[in-house]
Amino acid sequence: MTTDAVQEKIKELEERLEKVEANRSNLTMVLFSGDFDKAFAAFIIANGALAMGKEVTIFVTFWGIDVLKKPTMTGAGKNFLEKMVTMMRPKGTANLPTSKMNFAGIGPKLFNYMMGKKNITSLQSLVDTSIEFGVKIVVCQMSMDVMGIKKEDLIDGLEFGGVAAFLGSSFNSNTTLFV
Fold this sequence. Notes:
Layout: H1 3-23, E1 26-31, H2 36-51, E2 55-60, H3 80-88, H4 106-117, H5 123-132, E3 136-140, H6 141-147, E4 159-161, H7 163-171, E5 175-178
Parallel strand pairs: 1-2, 1-5, 2-3, 3-4
């Protein structure tokens, strides 16, 4: 092997190493669930990774969108089925059920009370902190279209995209989680 060929190989390896190191700073999550405890876990992980200097993207789809709804969201301007979905689904972090021990809505209130007693931040605070400090939250446009959810139904600071947005982020991450 000639000196030029060795140097070319070293350059190629250095470029590969740069790509690998660049990917170490990214975390991508899919938030599919609208359950309080699962959303809480997702935003705890997101804020933790952010505090460690990682770039974080959360792709929010189907029931996960409930976390990002404004509590004032209405069925105005929606067809019958979209109004039904709007009426039947929770709106915002304060109205999410827990995946276990929901007890007709008492479970989340119990958990919020217990968390408050132990000075654990609220889910809404975690969502706000994520947005404020740069977590990229991408809401699935297809899920929004299916359920008749409009951008103005959701909190501020979000981005909108499809599976390509998720895959692009995931391909550039070294960790992808599904919650």
